[in-house]
Amino acid sequence: MTPTDWATFVVSIIAIATAFLATIRWLVKHYLNELRPNGGSSLKDSVDRLERQVEKIMIILMEKK
User: Fold this and answer.
1) C-alpha–C-alpha distance, residues 29 and 22, integer Å
2) DSSP label at 37?
3) Three-class secondary structure of residue 31 per DSSP
4) What are phi and psi of 37, to 5 degrees?
């Protein structure tokens, strides 16, 4: 292989690695955003609402005993 071929190969590997890392970064940022409360539509808000409802149900069940 000539030096030009090696340079092309190295640049293409760097480009692929950069694209892969950028994709991973975007995915992590997107999923972490779902875990922050945002006023009602995030996964965190849904889990919080379910926890409050379960606590109310547990209180009602404990009072009936």
Assistant:
1) 11
2) -
3) helix
4) -65, 140
Other C-beta atoms closer than 10 Å to the C-beta of 7 total: 11
The secondary structure of 41-64 as a DSSP string is SSHHHHHHHHHHHHHHHHHHHHHH
> What is d(CA 43, CA 49) in angstroms, rounded to the nearest whole number?
10
Task: Tell me if the pTM is above 0.70.
Answer: no
Residue with token string 């092309």:
8
In three-state secondary structure terms, 11 is helix
Separation between Cα atoms, residue 18 and residue 52, nearest integer Å:
43
Eight-class DSSP state of 38: -
| Cα dihedral 52, 55, 61, 65 in deg (nearest 10) | -150
Chain segment 13-22, per-residue pLDDT in tens: 999 999 999 9
